[in-house]
Amino acid sequence: MTAAFVLGEVLCGQTDIIPAVSGRIAALILPVFLLLTIVWMYWRKARGGSFLMMAVMLLFGFFCMRSAMRKEPLEVRLEKAESVCGAEAEGVVDSVSEKEDRVRYTVRDAVIRIPASDGGTETFRAEKIYVTRLEEREEYGIEPGEPARFHGKLSLFEEATNPGQFDFKRYYRGLGIRYRLQADSAERLEGENESSPAEMAAYRIKKRAERAIDAVCLPEDRGFFRAVLLGDRGFLSEEDAKLFREGGISHILAVSGLHVSLIGMTVYTILRKTGAGYGPAGAAAGVLLLIYGIIAGFGASVFRAVFMTILGMGANFIGRTYDRMSAMALALLLLLIPSPYLLYSAGVQLSFAAILAICVLENRDRRRKRREMLEEKNRNRDREGRRNGGKTICANGFGRIFGKGGGTDGRKASCTADALPCADRIRGAFRMNAAIQLFTLPVILQNFFTYPAIGLLLNLVVIPLMSFAAASGFFGAGLCALGITSFAGAVIAPGHYIYHFYRFLCAIAEKAFFLQFTPGSPSNLAVCGYYALIFAAFYEDEIRIKLNLRKKWGFGLGIAIALGILFIRRPLSGLEATFLDVRQGECLVLRYGDHTWISDCGSTQDKNVGENRLVPFLKSRGVTHVDTAFVSHSDADHVNGISYLLKEKTGISVGKLVLPTVAISSDRYDSLKETAKKAKVPVEYMDAGVTSAIGKTDPWGGRMRCIHPLAGEKPDAEEPNEHCLAFEVSCGKLKMILTADLPETHEKEIVGQIMEHKSERDTGSGKASDNTSDKASGNTSDNASDNASGKASGNTSDNATGKASGNTSDNTSGKASGKTVTILKAGHHGSATSTSEALLKAVKPDLVVISCGRHNRYGHPAPETMERIRRSGTKILDTEFDGAITIRSDGESVRTETFRQRRSRAADCRSGSETGNRP
């Protein structure tokens, strides 16, 4: 039933987000799913009521998701403006958390007032809003349950517009929050605290526990113990968070079933052993778990663990069998009914995938044990009627014949029996860990794109020790809170040493970079195939019996094929060019086969564009090496992402950096050159005429030719736009002109280069060979290499682009039937001083791509530029409304895809008036 509910949500979500594509997908998947479900239920001899229940749940899930996706009036209003200043929000504080000097509030039942155009105010209501405020810890005194009023800037959460980018809007929608307020003032209102006694007690306990942890722990340990005991990662250093994540053990920093079992089951067991009945013991442990859940924030994983534990104790009380799988399904159902968007949360997916692995493995072991018991019973029945020379065959199944005393062999058997439980425990821990890793692997790859294989080994050590670390933290902080400080430090000491042992293991794992696999984000089809094979492998015996198969097809073979589906990727066939949405800036990623090039990456609206957009995109495509990074000029909106890639340890290496020739003498590039030198990346310089081959092994070939700046020119270094690198990229029947930020006065040089090159092609003279080197006109810095540019290693798949967060759209599909498809990247983000009529007439583009940011202060793209493009009859796509724009060509056909569905303007052409009226 839960599966039907989830499918209903997915189908509804896809249908609303991308109707052009998902309508066809839903029409294909739904009948297949229903057919397979009917076959399965017939196989299991299900009754008619089960079919009816499945249909009801499918429809229920569909309407739940549709209701959750409906936009509120205030949300529609805020989509037309980046933010609204002078907003006021009033409501009941639901939770309070802190991070250094920043306090974060969740406010429920909020009344929001924003200024109206007529000078008055407009009033809206919201279920929850997220408020952040910079203030000293001693100053804030608003507690959960108290009414409060906040003033500040109201906005929506950022939505993912690129493959691999984290979708804050979807994440907070799963928490029931649509709006955020950056408050500059806050005040407590008169009124009673609306918290329940349990919530008030939990808050008091949490504040006391925080003070106890701060008092008893060393400064470097506070963040760790706050995270693992209270679920508060606000004080965990970024270095530790990254270290644990790359080591594959970041799950220990979240409150989960381990903590719930440690608290609830310990209390439950102690009460049972002291003579308490199932009811009193379960009630006491349940109340304690509810309070702890409130302290930890009652996230999805905490709710699942608390709910399933209480359900298990309740089953004991009423004398019924506890079924873990059914309890897990019910917990997921209860989570998704009020918040269907939790379906897309990585934390929810990991939590339920892990518990599903435990359920499947336990079910497999239970079936196998039952089968072995039946076989043993049959063997014993046969032995009863058979004698062998007065000696009996030992009933333990070893088949040895013993005398009456047993002698030395008996002693050995006893020793072996004593040793078996320990070996079984080690083997069981390894099997459980391996099963969890198998079931969570697709979730990790789809959300984080990298799999630390060494985590499989680390978890064998980390998970058992975590019980001791958490227990020492609980008891140490508890003693300190009770005023027994003399022993608290000694009690919490084991947790301190375990924490630093974890850091030591992760530091070793960080050096084992060869065990970090980055296959990229698998497609949904690959994930479905993977799980089908995994379930078939775990239920191999049952499938073999049902299908009357005599030979085992192999558990290991099924696992190996499933892993191959996720990790083995064939290189791209043809050229893929992706214009990333970096807001106000520019970034182009070119990929061919297993090679990658980057042309510019920077933004003035997203200062962390490298971390937030570029690196996630590359990893989602399985790229671990960039052959060449081209920087057209020194402006920040073209450079800061490249600087991040060179400076930080991202797991992505760069082969070389290419700059315009003016960078040899201009101090504008000194910082970038120094960063490249520290990263041991060679720097080369380029001007017009330099060509590098793309796909030279294919019959149609391809190349990237520099068409600006002209060789021998000495442009003014103080005007970086005038010496921009510009390129002509050709691949079969695809041709792209990349103009960077060149002004109109220098576009005539591009026109001359294009016309001259076209004349050479027409006459057959001056044909550029495929092995032309892209070395810059003779000048290279320190470690400049003499190789041809542009080769990157890394496994990438040729799946449809725009596949992060599920928003993908195939807007145009054009075949180059005997005609070259020309794509022009509009100059200077569509400013009025670029993309002149002369350039448009010379290039005659079929598509113009504009890279600009929404609500940018420059007014890009300019209305007059849009009018010029409109008059040329050219189709327009821009990153502001379309998100990442991907163009693919196999040499014969050209296909264009956008990450987002067009929402504000027609897909074929935008007029100048439309641009002028943009919000």
Automatic annotation (TrEMBL):
Q: What Gene3D superfamilies does the record point to?
A: Ribonuclease Z/Hydroxyacylglutathione hydrolase-like
Q: How does it sit in the membrane?
A: Multi-pass membrane protein
Q: Where is the ComEC/Rec2-related protein domain?
A: 229-539
Keywords of this entry: Cell membrane, Membrane, Transmembrane, Transmembrane helix
Compartments in which it is found: Cell membrane
Q: Which residues cross the membrane?
A: 25-43, 49-68, 252-271, 277-295, 342-361, 435-462, 468-493, 553-572
Spell out the CDD domains in the cross-references: ComA-like_MBL-fold (cd07731)
One Gene Ontology cellular component annotation? plasma membrane
List compositional bias (Polar residues) regions by residue number.
766-815
> By its UniProt entry, which Pfam families does this protein fall under?
Competence, DUF4131, Lactamase_B
* Bias kind Basic and acidic residues: ranges: 755-764, 892-908
**Major place of residence:** membrane
Which parts of the sequence belong to the Metallo-beta-lactamase domain?
581-853
Name all DUF4131 domain ranges. 26-188
Positions of the region Disordered? Answer: 755-817, 892-919
Stated name of the protein: ComEC/Rec2-related protein
Species annotation: [Clostridium] aminophilum
